[in-house]
């Protein structure tokens, strides 16, 4: 159940990211064509005011389709109609006028020629796959030639639409952290055991939630000294003296396990919580967001130098960490979700295509140079960006597998 909630939280962050793009695109009259909760293909869908709203069958985040992300090229349409032309060679002579106008840069003429090609396709007998590809090509070309196309918009509109996704995640992180502060954050720990990790040494010796730890290894400890005493054992067997139901019990011995560089028995102590007012919570949440942002930017710099590669995590590790936080306390889960939202915002702002930061960077460069960057440059930079993103994913995946295996 906790894993499902953790996956749902990650999907929510992606959904609100896409919602940010969608809302701002509407606001600047760059009318999106589709907005889905989850990813297509659609389970249910409905068209309203020319926009297709739907619920997708792949339960991961959301999807928004903004028309004409790139200036249309003759080769794009030809690639989509390749199968149709193979099945009905006479279509080539109807496709040629549109290709010619696109190649010559006469975009209005190209759009005006699309209906004739569309009518010819409708009368031609084709396989389902060929018709699907051809119709998709016509739709995308028509979108890219429309006045609402992304690539036609002014630089500030393009930047606003793209920046809205990361900005929504950033705002969500601050709001979620503020909620955590209003609900209450731990200010002090107690001797009482809050939870015991399944399969841990603590569970093996019979430690239970509600036990009050008095001694570690026969030495009296304060609440603040409990974790430190376990860490200082360096993995040697120790006992726990606990108060349970009015009587004192000695549990163990148990051998602490080394987890992420520290020796632990596998339990969490109960904490005292303090809540804050709205204004103070916003202030504290903003401060934390800024501090974590600096830490994340620093870790990205260390990845480049090679010293921070073990700090990268994949979606698998993110879900695992969220699930473990949810087991501990729902407030911990909300705080982790806020930090993941912040990380998603910052990752997307990296100046790499196809990330949002790459689109923002290209829009700025195009504004400065006064003309569009060639399509070939977009494709080459996108290939590099995809390679970097995949490298980070597999690096994070290897780290997560190593942690799961205790490496």
Write the layout of secondary structure elements.
Layout: H1 2-27, E1 34-48, E2 51-65, H2 74-80, H3 82-87, H4 91-104, H5 107-123, H6 128-145, H7 155-183, E3 185-196, H8 201-204, E4 212-216, E5 219-220, H9 223-231, E6 238-244, E7 247-254, E8 257-259, E9 262-264, E10 267-274, H10 278-305, H11 315-328, H12 330-348, H13 356-369, H14 375-404
Helix pairs in contact: 1-7, 1-11, 1-12, 2-4, 2-6, 4-5, 5-6, 7-10, 7-12, 7-13, 10-12, 11-12
Question: What do you see in this structure?
Answer:
This protein has 407 residues and is an alpha+beta fold. It has 3 domains: 74-145, no CATH class; 186-274, PDZ domain (Pdz3 Domain), CATH 2.30.42.10; 278-404, no CATH class. 58% of the residues lie in helices and 19% in strands. It is built from 14 helices and 10 strands. It has a 4-stranded antiparallel beta sheet. It is elongated, with a radius of gyration of 28 Å. Residues 403-407 have low confidence and may be disordered.
Summarize the structure.
Helices cover 58% and strands 19% of the residues. By secondary structure, the protein is an alpha+beta fold.
Mean pLDDT equals 85
Query: How far apart are the termini?
Result: 26 Å
Largest sheet: 4 strands, antiparallel
**Spatial order of the strands in the main sheet?**
5-4-6-7
Low-confidence stretches: 403-407
**Backbone shape:** elongated
Structural class: alpha+beta
- The total of beta strands comes to 10
- Rg estimate, integer Å: 28 Å
């Amino acid at each position: 159940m906790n894993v499902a909630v953790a996956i749902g939280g990650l999907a929510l962050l992606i959904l609100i990211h896409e919602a940010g793009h969608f809302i701002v695109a509407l606001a600047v009259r760059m009318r999106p064509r589709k907005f889905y909760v989850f990813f297509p293909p659609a389970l249910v869908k409905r068209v309203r005011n020319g926009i297709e709203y739907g619920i997708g069958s792949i339960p991961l985040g959301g999807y928004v389709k903004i028309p004409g992300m790139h200036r249309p090229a003759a080769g794009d349409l030809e690639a989509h109609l390749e199968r149709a032309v193979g099945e009905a060679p006479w279509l080539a002579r109807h496709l040629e006028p549109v290709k010619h106008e696109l190649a010559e840069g006469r975009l209005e003429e190209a759009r005006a020629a699309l209906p004739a090609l569309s009518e010819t396709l409708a009368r031609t007998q084709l396989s389902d796959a060929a018709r699907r590809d051809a119709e998709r090509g016509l739709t995308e070309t028509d979108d890219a030639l429309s006045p609402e196309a992304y690539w036609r918009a002014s630089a500030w509109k393009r930047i606003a639409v793209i920046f809205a996704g990361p900005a929504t995640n950033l705002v969500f992180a601050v709001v979620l952290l503020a909620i955590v502060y209003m609900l209450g954050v731990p200010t002090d720990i107690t001797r009482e055991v809050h939870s015991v990790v399944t399969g841990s040494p603590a569970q093996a010796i019979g430690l239970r939630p509600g036990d009050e730890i008095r001694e570690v290894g026969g030495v009296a400890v304060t609440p603040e000294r409990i974790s430190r005493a376990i860490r200082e054992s360096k993995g040697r067997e120790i006992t726990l003296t606990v108060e349970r139901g009015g009587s004192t019990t000695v549990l163990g011995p148990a051998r602490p396990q080394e987890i992420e560089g520290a020796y632990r028995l596998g339990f969490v102590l109960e904490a005292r919580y303090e809540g804050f007012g709205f204004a103070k919570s916003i202030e504290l949440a903003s401060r934390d967001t800024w501090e974590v942002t600096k830490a994340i930017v620093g870790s990205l710099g260390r990845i480049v130098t090679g010293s921070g590669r073990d700090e990268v995590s994949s979606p698998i590790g993110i879900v695992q960490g969220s699930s473990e936080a949810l087991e501990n306390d729902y407030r911990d889960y909300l705080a982790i979700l806020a930090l993941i939202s912040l990380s998603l915002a910052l990752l997307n702002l990296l100046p790499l295509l196809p990330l949002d930061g790459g689109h923002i960077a290209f829009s700025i460069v195009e504004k400065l140079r006064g003309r569009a960057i060639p399509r070939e440059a977009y494709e080459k930079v996108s290939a590099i960006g995809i390679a970097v993103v995949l490298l980070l994913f597999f690096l994070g995946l290897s780290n997560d597998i190593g942690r799961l295996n205790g490496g």
